[in-house]
Amino acid sequence: MNIMDFNVKKLAADAGTFLSRAVQFTEEKLGQAEKTELDAHLENLLSKAECTKIWTEKIMKQTEVLLQPNPNARIEEFVYEKLDRKAPSRVNNPELLGQYMIDAGTEFGPGTAYGNALIKCGETQKRIGTADRELIQTSALNFLTPLRNFIEGDYKTIAKERKLLQNKRLDLDAAKTRLKKAKAAETKSSSEQELRITQSEFDRQAEITRLLLEGISSTHAHHLRCLNDFVEAQMTYYAQCYQYMLDLQKQLGSFPSNYLSNNNQSSGTPVPSALSNAIGPSAMASTGSLVIPSSNLNDLKESSGSRKARVLYDYDAANSTELSLLADEVITVFSVVGMDSDWLMGERGNQKGKVPITYLELLN
Q: 256: which strand partners?
């Protein structure tokens, strides 16, 4: 019975306090009551905390978009995080593209130039996918998690204490209003005591809030270190990707560069990209076509005999006068009077046609 009485009294007291605060708040908005202003230092700290919270949320959300552009995947990761479970691993876009390229290259034939190139590109894309996964994991751990901890931890505590400070201020101002309205000496004495209590509680809460808010500077310093970690993770990622693509470019440089379509191919000799890079664009522009300086080839062109030659790269004939070639096959080549200096006549069984000398290696 006594416990019930206590609960009823507490409920009535809480209701009275809530009503008093509501009345004070309404009268302040209507300009009918005075409002205790916080000191300038505390106001600046509150403003700094609010600004930090707003921009931290924006940076955090946009970083999540950068690292995971798929909104459905982000929602799934959020749900698993709230359930305190690990999200299932999924293939990312570079890894998926890489697998498609490898499968296509395997079906076209690893022995063909296009199939081999697809497989090499696919392997590189998968390595980029792995680097992408490492970037996401490192950034989430070293950058996103500290930002989220601030929003969901430190700032929630600040917001709670700030709200409590607001309530203490309303109690203080309500006590000031009651003291002004008090007329009887007894009522005045009671109001003065209430004012002293509310003033003490307000000052104490203001000090607690100030101490919490001054920690924002430490938060900025911590977030700066996290930002450096994020930049380092990105630097590592882009350096890896650059190196992977550089290695891929070198590998693809061994393939011929047939950058013109067969129907529009010029009469000049097709030039492998590795050789084109070696002699430079200015040399290409001045010569128009490339002649490999080889005494063996020159001797062959000056003689009427034939030689065996190994094919260095796949070559698709541009027209019926040319012979298509497969890398590593051995054919017979010989010179024909009046033929362009960049070409030889090739023979494979009953098939015969012009072949570019840059695609051949004469055998002893």
A: 272
Q: How many helices (H) and strands (E) does the chain have?
A: 12, 5
pLDDT at 61 over 90: yes
Q: In 3D, which of 311, 313, 319 has the Cα closest to residue 347?
A: 311
Angstrom distance (rounded) from CA 108 to CA 115: 5
Q: How far apart are CA 278 and CA 236, in angstroms?
A: 30
User: Which residues make Cβ contacts (< 8 Å) with residue 13, sequence separation at least 6?
Assistant: none
Helix/strand/coil (H, E, C) string of 300-321?
A: HHHCCCEEEEEECCCECCCCCC
Residue 52 is encoded by which pair of tokens? 């930090």
DSSP string covering 129-151 = HHHHHHHHHHHIIIIIHHHHHII
Kindly give, in sequence order, each residue whose CB lies less than 8 Å from that of residue 276, ignoring residues fewer than 6 positions away.
257, 284, 290
Tokens representing 76 are: 């799934």
Backbone torsion region of residue 84, taken as left when φ is above 0, otherwise alpha when ψ lies between -120 and 50, otherwise beta? left
**pTM here?**
0.61
> Could you tell me whether strands 351-356 and 360-362 are parallel, antiparallel, or unpaired per DSSP bridges?
unpaired
Instruction: Tell me if 144 sits within 8 A of 226, measured CB to CB.
Output: no
Torsion of CA 48, 54, 55, 59, to 10 degrees: 150
**pLDDT band (50, 70, 90) for residue 48:** very high
Using a 10 angstrom Cβ sphere, with 0-12 exposed, 13-18 middle and 19 or more buried, the burial of residue 123 is middle
Q: Is the pLDDT of residue 296 over 90?
A: no
Nearest to 226 by CA among 312, 140, 153, 344: 140
Rg (CA), the chain: 40
113: number of Cβ within 10 Å: 20
Question: 10 Å Cβ neighbour count for 221?
Answer: 10
